[in-house]
Amino acid sequence: MCPFSGNIIPRKGTHALPSLEQAQADLSPHFALLHQTLESACDLAVHALDDTGLAFEPNLHADLVRAFAKRRLSLYDPEQLPSGGVCFRIDRYRVKILKAEDGGPPISNITKSRTNFMRQQLPPDYEVLGEPIVNLMLVWQVDRERKLSSLQFICTTQADLNSNMADVYWTFPVPDLISAIIGPKEVEIDDLPIGEMDEKETGTR
Amino acid sequence: MSRIYGERIKQAREYHGLTQKELAEAAGVLQPAIAKMEMDATSPSDNVLNAIVQRTGFPPAFFLHSADEDFPAGSLLYRAKESLTVRDRARAYRAAQLIRECVESLARRVRAIPIRVPELKCDPASAARITRSTLGLTSDEPIAHLINAVERIGVLVLVLPFAVDKLDAFSSWPPGEGQRPMIAITEGVPGDRLRYSVGHELGHLVLHATPSGTIAGMEKQADAFASELLLPESAMRQELLVPVTLSSVAQLKVRWRVSMQALIMRARSLGIITERQHKYLFKQLTIRGWRKREPENLDVPVEKPRAPRKMAEIVYGGASFDLQRVAGDLKQGRWFIESMMRPYLEQADLPARSKPVTQSELDGSTVIPFVRRADKRRSWA
């Protein structure tokens, strides 16, 4: 039974949700760690499959990615979810790591808990202190080489159990860590210790 | 008629990458005539000399004084075994020879930097650690400006004012007491690759003053030297943490100013990653097109040497010295002096806070001297 399928705390609307700009500002200090976590999790999953000699299977790969990501994100104290799901808190944001579905957003009605999450609903016993909690999906995608190709936050407001559609409030990519790095700067150096010849040495006087 | 030196004709021709036949056509003579002139078997007529002057741009005075003794081709010989063409090799050698002649002429008129390049017979990693110590570096700090550091231990770093296919740098230590070791670098080389090449050539100077073993063996040693010099093992074991990803090596590239590829190879050589992980990371570089061109935002600034220009500033009284006067003194074309001086750091490129040179630095009295070997010609010179 899905743990979130009982009493649901309804959300009133988007007024409780932060703007795109606010969310980017709040989450930007975590971009590097999140990107590196998913990047290395994707790499490690490929290596793990190679090591065991198992044929590549997308669901198994995704399970491994989640497992490696969860281990790396232990500092965020992830929730204990069934089926290896990864959900953790960054301040007011409750972030769930999900794999992109055929290049698009995750299917909204695959489980009731997923639908509720996308509806910005919280589990009944969820501790809320201070600002309202915001459910966010952190959606990852790999390329043909199983390398992380995109990572984006998606904030939804509504989802329908009877269809696979959800209302997206905003979305933004977590910048590729490498493209966000500021490269090495010119180095300032002191001048070389080359001097004029002494009069004695030049023989001129 | 004044004597025309055949060696000068050859220098001028090879500097421009011309064959004897091509120069002969420009001079209105046959190829054997140029061959004889270069061997001093005949002397060119005034008309032929004028044509050679026109074609090469070197002034008549250049051909009227003898050339300095050839210096050993040094590590340039190693490239000859690989893919460098004979013409490119000759052109690179001649450019270095002509530039070195001018710079040595300037060096005789200033108080130059004492030569402190260690000559070592030990394993490359130990040699690199000793060299880092000579450069005044601890074992865990990046080398901020390698060329400046190398110049400070008395190596003459020259820039060939053109790009040479498949040649980033070469080095040579001319025989004779007090002769200055030299590293020649070519233009158009990316900053990270240039640093690695300079580290490699410094390895040849430190380890192979007297060459021994096979060329492949010496090249491997110079690579190992450069790796330890630029990416010391003790620091890498602290900083190249698993899982090693493209993102993590990209961040280290900024700090250590070497290519991502060099960092991945270092991780492999130190056993930090497995062969399979090494191949995987290189495959990722290839997919992104980063084997040929690493991300632009991570470009390492190209380092420039300073010494030759500083010598000219001292001899000719300031940063804006008269190129024509220098050319006249050195019996060179103005174009040559201009192209020769262009790739170096100028006074204006240095920070205003650049501290004045102290007397002890000029004396080299703070320096631990290394014993220079006795004058002995090398078997490969």
Short description, anyone?
Chain A is α+β, with helices and mostly antiparallel strands.
Describe this structure in words.
The complex is a heterodimer of chains A (205) and B (381). By secondary structure, chain A is an alpha+beta fold. Chain A has helices spanning 20-27, 31-52, 58-72, 112-118, 177-180, 199-202; strands spanning 86-90, 93-99, 134-142, 148-159, 166-173, 195-196. Chain A is globular. With 381 residues, chain B is mostly helical. Chain B is 50% helix and 4% strand. Chain B is built from 19 helices and four strands. In chain B, strands 2-4-3 form a three-stranded mixed sheet, sandwiched between helices. Chain B is elongated. Residues 364-381 of chain B have low confidence and may be disordered. Chains A and B meet through helix 2, helix 5 and strand 6 of A and strand 1, helix 9, helix 13, helix 15 and helix 16 of B. Strand 6 of chain A pairs antiparallel with strand 1 (110-111) of chain B, so a sheet runs across the interface.
Write the layout of secondary structure elements.
The complex is a heterodimer of chains A (205) and B (381).
Chain A: H1 20-27, H2 31-52, H3 58-72, E1 86-90, E2 93-99, H4 112-118, E3 134-142, E4 148-159, E5 166-173, H5 177-180, E6 195-196, H6 199-202
Parallel strand pairs in A: 2-3
Antiparallel strand pairs in A: 1-2, 3-4, 4-5
Chain B: H1 6-15, H2 20-27, H3 31-38, H4 46-56, H5 60-63, H6 76-80, H7 86-107, E1 110-111, H8 124-134, H9 146-152, E2 156-160, E3 169-172, E4 182-186, H10 191-207, H11 215-230, H12 233-239, H13 246-256, H14 260-269, H15 275-287, H16 307-315, H17 323-329, H18 334-341, H19 359-363
Parallel strand pairs in B: 2-4
Antiparallel strand pairs in B: 3-4
Helix pairs in contact in B: 1-3, 1-7, 2-3, 8-11, 10-11, 14-15, 17-18
Shape of chain B: elongated
Main sheet: strand order of chain B: 2-4-3
Could you list the spans of chain A in which at least 5 consecutive residues all have pLDDT below 50? 1-10
Q: Radius of gyration of chain B, rounded? A: 22 Å
Structural class of chain A: alpha+beta
How would you spell out the order of helices and strands of chain B? HHHHHHHEHHEEEHHHHHHHHHH
Number of helices of chain B: 19
- Average per-residue pLDDT of chain A, rounded, comes to 82
Count of individual helical segments of chain A: 6
The biggest sheet of chain B amounts to: 3 strands, mixed
Shape of chain A: globular
Overall number of structural domains of chain A: 1
Average predicted confidence as pLDDT of chain B: 87
Number of strands of chain A: 6
Helix amount of chain B, in percent? 40-55%
